[in-house]
Each structure stands twice: as structure tokens, then as C-alpha cells.
């Protein structure tokens, strides 16, 4: 059986289980049968993953030193093309399969220049399966290769060859052009792979492509959208690489010294790049990458960096008596506070933990990063005493705040144990004790809280009314934050602790629902809650436990019939449906408190009829940027953002 064939044991019922129950999937059929195994999902995230895989191939050419320009284009028909000026796929026959190498790469799952050969020293993507997976999940794909003075072309339908590789012209350039049409399910295409109605999001792809340009200094990436009414273009090119990446992370913050600290080195074929700079915030923005792949759970490279940074700061503090003999050493949390940093490593054989490659596992990388960063930081701090003192003062302030926060948490714990009822007084808890079945509504105001308490299902729904706008934690350290009563109520109600005490397994509700008014103030309160979750309990968002309720904006009444609508566009559509001449009655809800408990239940809380949004953390870098922009101290960037996006706001209650 060819090595690219896949064998799947199919579960069967009954007594017979023999060879006839073994399903053999040939070629790329396994990818179409189990797409989630290769791209994670068949929703919009999986759709974008197709673009990333083709771009990663081009980036690999850049890493090998043969490509400096990549063009990505969304065509009017929502197909996507990626062109690079690298060497171009090899077009000569593969010695074993006796087919053109480009055809083998596009149609055989585990084929490519990244499997033990000398084609690439380092690479990202799906390690050689990226192009073939994209081909399998596209209803159509075309590849053009410019090499040796000729242009070669081949097309495929759902991964199968349409015609043999052919020469279509002459050229004096080199490179690869791939255009693909994703296989999206529809009435006309019921066999499609991806969810119906999805399309590429320019902003999401722009964020990833900008990231790639930062991580690969000198590479120019041109990105253009040609869809009707969505035309736009961006060019990303950063000669400063990670230095400019850190400046980008800090663009909405006040930095504590003008230029990022930069580390670059190679040891045992592992390339290490680090850029870091402190700012005036109270949270860290540290992101790690391995072979250009974001590792949100860190790994050995991040561990090595944190170890080196903590040791270098402590050693400097001791050497110059900034840390006294009686002082305890600074902890890693102290030196990370206020730090924006990028840690990037590139290595021949990365070992990622988990299917999603969220954590780097190579044990040797930790000591390599530790050694290179430690050596450079020690030298830098000796040569830049003014900057070093700024860093030490910031870290000492973080240590004092950490100790104050520890005492505040300890006081809260002791108080909870001593009090007869440890839950907040305003919490109306549910009777169910299985967290997976429980949900808590964080409700704006006592009035709406009263309606929610009356209308809820007491078995599995808890209500916690919040008084006004909670504290903006983006501008506050944890010790001050823990003095805020509304935040303390949330921490106590959730049961999972915070900071060093955080334990996701103790969370009492697996749906945390922000239920605020459908107006500007309600949106502000929701953002304040999300800022708190993102900065101090990000695991709640990562695990998919945070939601936003969607209360209706209008009630439309015509005779004895009633309809609830959720925005102005839906209102106009409903009025067209029922007829405007009969003059239906339209009630605009200014707040949740205007609804009766029955209305609140049927429109916003009843699992059978409600609509809720789930918050995800699909792009931590973009999320960090938005929270810093919207909730930070800098006014100018926030004002510019509001002006640029004002056209997206359909209705403002002013």
C-alpha cells in the first residue's frame, strides 16, 4: 500500500469485525475525511489556515535566503493567490515516484523539502504537508512555477490532477504562484468542506501577515483585497525586525526608555532573537515564536528567556546594592510586569507539544536561549546604568505591589472562611453544582438584576448585579484592583482565585455572561469586564467560558403579534415584512431594566430562544493591542481609532 494512503478503523456494530470494515483512504482523501486533524476546524479559522500554510511555504524560501517579496491577493471571487520570488518548486521528476516534484508536493501528503533533506534548514507550517492539505481542501487550485527560464503550470480539482505539468511560457524570473478556491459547502456544492457562508476576513489576515514581516526582517509582504466594496492594500516591510515589533506592541503605551533591548545569536544551529522594552502599563505583553509559529503556551524558549532576565536583573541589583542583603530576590512575575517582548527561535527540528503546536518542547533550546540572553543582558546593563536603574525601580515597584496583593488575597480568604456566607451578598446563586451546567450573568445595575433574578431558571442560572462601571484594570496594579468591591465580588463568585491562586478547575460556572444594556454605556461596561478577564483571568477566555448576552434593541407590535429585533438593520427588514402602512408600534429599549422578568427571560436568558456571543482569544497580539488602545492612558491613538471606525457604528445614544 502506498505510504500516502491512510487506514482508518471504522467502528461497527454487531458481531462481525473483519477486513471488510477497514476503510482505506487513498492519496488526499484522508484530509477531506478528517480536515480538523490538519487545519483545526472547518470554520473561518480553518479557512484562514489555508492562507497561512501557503504563505509559510514562501516564508521558508525567505528563511533559506532565496525570497524577499511575497504578494498575497484576495480576488473578487474570494479565491486567494500567493506569489513569491523564491527558487520555485522543483519541476524535475521525483526519483522514486517518477512524477514532477511540484506535483508530488501538491498531491502526496508527506512530501516536501522539509523531511530530512537539505532543502530547508528550518521551516514552519505543517512540516511539508501544507501545500497538499490546501490542495485537498480546495475545489480548485492552480500552481505556476517560474524556473530555468520557463513557466510551468498544473491545476487540480479537490486534490486530484486535472492535467500533467506543462510549459506555458518563457520567463527571466523565478518563484512560485499558487491560487486556490476553498471548497465551501453550499446548495450548489453540498460536498464542500468548509461551513456555508464563510469568507476571508482582511483584518485577520493582515494581522498575521504583519506578524510574519516583523519576524523575518527585510521581507516585503504586499497584501491586497480586490473584492467589490472591500478594496484595500497594505505593504509590510520591517528592516528592524523584532525591534519594530516591540515598538508596535508599545505604540499605545508610554515607554520607559527610547529603544528596545535587542539580542541576536546562534548556538548549535539554533538562531535566537529577542527584543524587549518596558512601558508604563501594569501587565506584560510577551509573545514567543518558534520557526515563525506563534507558541501561545510558551515552551522551552520562553522559559530560558524568563530565567535569564530574572537572573540578570537580580544579579545587577545585588552587585550595585539596589537590592539590599535583607531583600528577597525579585521573582519572574516582578521582572515581567510592564514588559513588552518578542522571543523568536529558529531551529532545524522543532518539537511541538500538542496538535495545535502551542508549546515548544525542545529541551536544548532552554539553555541556549538562557545563555545567549543572559550574556547579552549582563553586558547591556553594565554599559547602560541609567536604563538598568529604570528597570530595577520598575521591578521593585512590581514586587511591592505583588506583596500587597498577596496580603489582600490572604485577607479576602480569611474573611471568607470566617463569615457564615462566603459568597457576595448580592449574588443569587443557582442550585446546580456541576460547573459545566452552570452559568452566571453579570448584570448591569440593581434594576436589571432584579428582573434577571425573577426571570431566571434558579436551577442552573446565577445572577450577580454590578453597580455601575467597574474599575479599569488596564491602569491599575493588582493590589489596588483588589480593593474594588465589584471586582472582589466577581473573584469570590467565580471561585477560581486570581494571580498566583488562580485554578481553573475550581471555577464554579462554565458560562460567564456579560449582560449589559444595548447602548454606549453598556458597551463600555462590557469592555471593562473583558479587560479584567483578559489581563487577570485570560484562561477563562481561552477555555471559551466568557460570553456576551444579546438583549433586543426594539420590540415591534402589530395587533396581537410581537417581534423582538436586535439592531437597526433587522428593524428595517421586519418593517418591510409586516408593512409600514399599518403603522406598527415600535418600542426602543433603553436598558435591561425596562424589560419585565418574563421579557428578559424569553429574549435574553432562555437557552431555547436567546442569542449569545462567545469571546475567543484567537489572536492574542491583536487582542493585546486593542485593549491597550481602548483602555490605556494614551488619548491620541484612541481618538484616531474612533474616527477611523466611526462608519461602523450604526447608532449612538448621545
Report on the structure:
36% of the residues lie in helices and 21% in strands. Strand 19 (439-444), helix 12 and strand 20 form a beta-alpha-beta unit. Helix 3 runs antiparallel to helix 5, helix 3 runs parallel beside helix 6 and helix 12 (446-455) crosses helix 18. Mean pLDDT is 86; it is low at 1-5, 7-25, 114-118, 417-421 and 650-654. The strands form six sheets. Strands 3, 4, 5, 6, 7, 8, 9, 10 and 11 form a nine-stranded mixed beta sheet that branches. The protein has a five-stranded mixed beta sheet with strand order 12-13-16-14-15, sandwiched between helices. It folds into three domains: 31-237, Histidine kinase-like ATPase, C-terminal domain (Heat Shock Protein 90); 242-402, Ribosomal Protein S5, domain 2 (2-Layer Sandwich); 426-551 and 612-648, Rossmann fold, CATH 3.40.50.670. The chain contains 20 helices and 26 strands. It starts with 5 loop residues before the first strand and ends in a 10-residue tail after the last helix. It is α+β, with helices and mostly antiparallel strands and 654 residues long.
Amino acid at each position: 500500500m502506498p505510504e500516502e494512503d491512510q487506514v482508518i478503523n471504522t467502528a461497527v456494530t454487531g458481531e462481525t469485525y473483519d477486513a471488510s470494515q477497514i476503510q482505506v483512504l487513498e492519496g488526499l482523501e484522508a484530509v477531506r475525511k478528517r480536515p480538523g486533524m490538519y487545519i483545526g476546524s472547518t470554520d473561518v479559522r480553518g479557512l484562514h489556515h489555508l492562507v497561512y500554510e501557503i504563505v509559510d511555504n514562501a516564508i521558508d524560501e525567505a528563511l533559506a535566503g532565496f525570497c524577499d517579496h511575497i504578494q498575497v491577493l484576495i480576488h473578487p471571487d474570494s479565491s486567494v493567490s500567493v506569489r513569491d520570488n523564491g527558487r520555485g518548486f522543483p519541476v524535475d521528476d521525483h526519483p522514486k515516484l517518477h512524477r514532477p516534484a511540484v506535483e508530488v508536493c501538491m498531491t502526496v501528503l508527506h512530501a516536501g523539502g522539509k523531511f530530512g533533506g537539505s532543502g530547508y534548514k528550518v521551516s514552519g507550517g505543517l512540516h511539508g504537508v501544507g501545500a497538499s492539505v490546501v490542495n485537498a481542501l480546495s475545489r480548485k487550485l492552480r500552481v505556476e512555477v517560474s524556473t530555468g527560464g520557463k513557466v510551468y503550470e498544473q491545476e487540480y480539482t479537490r486534490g486530484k490532477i486535472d492535467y500533467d505539468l506543462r510549459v506555458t511560457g518563457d520567463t527571466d524570473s523565478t518563484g512560485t504562484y499558487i491560487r486556490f478556491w476553498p471548497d465551501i459547502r453550499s446548495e450548489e456544492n453540498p460536498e464542500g468542506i468548509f461551513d456555508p457562508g464563510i469568507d476571508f476576513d482582511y483584518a485577520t489576515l493582515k494581522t498575521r501577515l504583519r506578524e510574519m514581516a516583523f519576524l523575518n526582517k527585510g521581507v516585503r509582504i504586499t497584501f491586497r483585497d480586490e473584492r467589490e466594496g472591500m478594496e484595500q492594500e497594505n505593504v509590510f516591510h520591517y528592516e528592524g525586525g523584532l525591534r519594530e515589533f516591540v515598538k508596535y506592541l508599545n505604540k499605545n503605551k508610554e515607554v520607559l526608555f527610547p529603544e528596545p533591548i535587542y539580542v541576536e545569536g546562534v548556538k548549535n544551529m539554533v538562531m535566537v532573537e529577542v527584543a524587549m522594552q518596558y512601558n508604563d502599563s501594569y501587565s506584560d505583553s510577551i509573545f514567543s515564536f518558534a520557526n515563525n509559529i506563534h507558541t501561545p503556551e510558551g515552551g522551552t524558549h520562553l522559559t530560558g528567556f524568563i530565567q535569564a532576565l530574572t537572573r540578570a536583573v537580580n544579579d545587577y541589583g545585588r552587585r550595585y546594592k539596589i537590592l539590599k542583603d535583607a531583600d528577597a530576590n525579585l521573582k519572574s512575575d516582578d521582572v515581567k510586569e510592564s514588559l513588552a517582548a518578542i522571543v523568536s527561535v529558529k531551529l532545524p527540528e522543532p518539537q511541538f507539544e500538542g496538535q495545535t503546536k502551542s508549546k515548544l518542547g525542545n529541551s536544548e533550546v532552554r539553555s541556549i536561549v538562557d545563555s545567549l540572553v543572559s550574556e547579552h543582558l549582563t553586558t547591556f546593563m553594565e554599559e547602560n546604568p541609567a536604563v538598568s536603574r529604570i528597570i530595577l525601580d520598575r521591578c521593585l515597584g512590581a514586587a511591592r505591589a505583588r506583596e500587597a496583593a498577596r496580603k489582600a488575597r490572604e485577607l479576602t480568604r480569611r474573611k471568607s472562611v470566617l463569615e457564615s456566607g462566603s459568597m457576595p451578598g448580592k449574588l443569587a446563586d443557582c442550585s446546580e453544582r456541576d460547573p459545566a451546567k452552570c452559568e452566571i450573568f453579570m448584570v448591569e445595575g440593581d434594576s436589571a438584576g432584579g428582573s434577571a433574578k425573577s426571570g431566571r431558571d434558579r436551577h442552573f442560572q446565577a445572577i450577580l448585579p454590578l453597580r455601575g462601571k467597574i474599575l479599569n484594570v488596564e491602569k491599575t496594579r493588582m493590589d489596588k484592583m483588589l480593593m474594588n468591591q465589584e471586582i472582589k465580588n466577581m473573584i469570590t463568585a467565580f471561585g477560581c482565585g486570581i494571580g498566583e491562586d488562580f485554578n481553573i478547575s475550581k471555577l464554579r460556572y462554565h458560562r460567564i455572561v456579560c449582560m449589559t444594556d444595548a447602548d454606549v454605556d453598556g458597551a463600555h461596561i462590557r469592555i471593562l469586564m473583558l479587560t479584567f478577564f483578559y489581563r487577570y483571568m485570560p484562561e477563562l477566555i481561552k477555555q471559551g467560558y466568557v460570553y456576551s448576552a444579546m438583549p433586543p434593541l426594539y420590540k415591534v407590535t402589530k395587533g396581537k403579534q410581537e417581534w423582538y429585533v436586535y439592531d437597526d438593520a433587522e428593524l428595517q427588514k421586519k418593517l418591510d415584512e409586516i408593512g409600514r402602512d399599518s403603522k406598527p408600534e415600535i418600542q426602543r429599549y433603553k436598558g435591561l431594566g425596562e424589560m419585565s422578568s418574563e421579557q428578559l427571560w424569553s429574549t435574553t436568558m432562555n437557552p431555547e430562544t436567546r442569542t449569545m456571543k462567545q469571546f475567543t482569544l484567537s489572536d492574542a497580539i491583536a487582542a493585546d493591542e486593542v485593549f491597550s488602545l481602548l483602555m490605556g492612558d494614551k488619548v491620541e491613538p484612541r481618538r484616531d481609532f474612533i474616527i477611523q471606525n466611526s462608519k461602523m457604528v450604526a447608532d449612538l445614544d448621545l
